């Protein structure tokens, strides 16, 4: 009887032992807590440095805030009405569109060509990969300052052209040449990053597909169009989104090379925002311009993401 009584009471003693985890502290809850702790730093950073500034940007856009005058008053939709009537805004948006289109087209096409060439098993490809990628690691301002000296009227570019009997223009003082110069400098700075992404995608394409297509009589162009492009289409989507968003956020290159000139030919939206907010100290209107920039980036990103259903044919 005593032995039976002890066996019956054993479960109760097991539950009341000191140091044993309570029933609610299950493995599933421990896993959830560990997951929350892992994402907590990213979540806190997202709230403090993305969501909070974004909310303040919308809040400031409804106010008339002049730091020098010390005024901060609610103005309703006055800044947005001014935005719709701003005579300089169409030219700014035109310069922004020209810069973005030129940068995206030249960057992506050049990066893809370089990746295809460097994907060949030839001697010296590692050296050329390093050369093309090295500008990515260079400080942006230092890179732009060097190119500003090279592109001056008596700079290195025109000096090289003069040895060939060609008289080069003052690249940074002509409306057309200034925009071309800014685009080329930015492309040379960042084309190596997209090149590496394309190169990684190309190396992931199964060799068996090329071998089978060659046996079927497909030439190089057909293999590129029917095999290479579909297989690397997710990478093309990624690089296009990154490049488009980056082209709309350009500032340092414009500030160092042209300061928005000549005239307003290279005054893109971000630089116009900077002028209104930090040079003219009109932070309310600057915030409204920031909202416009956010809307443009959001719309373009959503459009590209929706278009992936039509041309991204190899997506996990």
From TrEMBL:
Major localization class: membrane
Spans annotated as Disordered: 1-21
Annotated SUPFAM superfamilies: MetI-like (SSF161098)
Topological type in the membrane: Multi-pass membrane protein
Stretches that traverse the bilayer: 36-60, 92-118, 130-150, 178-202, 231-252, 283-303
UniProt keyword S-adenosyl-L-methionine, yes or no: no
Domain ABC transmembrane type-1: start-end pairs: 93-304
InterPro entries: ABC_transporter_permease, MetI-like, MetI-like_sf
Keyword Membrane among record annotations: yes
Annotated compartments: Cell membrane
Keywords: Cell membrane, Membrane, Sugar transport, Transmembrane, Transmembrane helix, Transport
Entry GO CC: plasma membrane
GO biological process assignments: transmembrane transport
Family according to the record: Belongs to the binding-protein-dependent transport system permease family.
PANTHER family to which the protein is assigned, alphabetical: ABC TRANSPORTER PERMEASE PROTEIN (PTHR30193), DIACETYLCHITOBIOSE UPTAKE SYSTEM PERMEASE PROTEIN NGCF (PTHR30193:SF41)
Protein name per its UniProtKB record: Multiple sugar transport system permease protein
Organism annotation: Glycomyces harbinensis
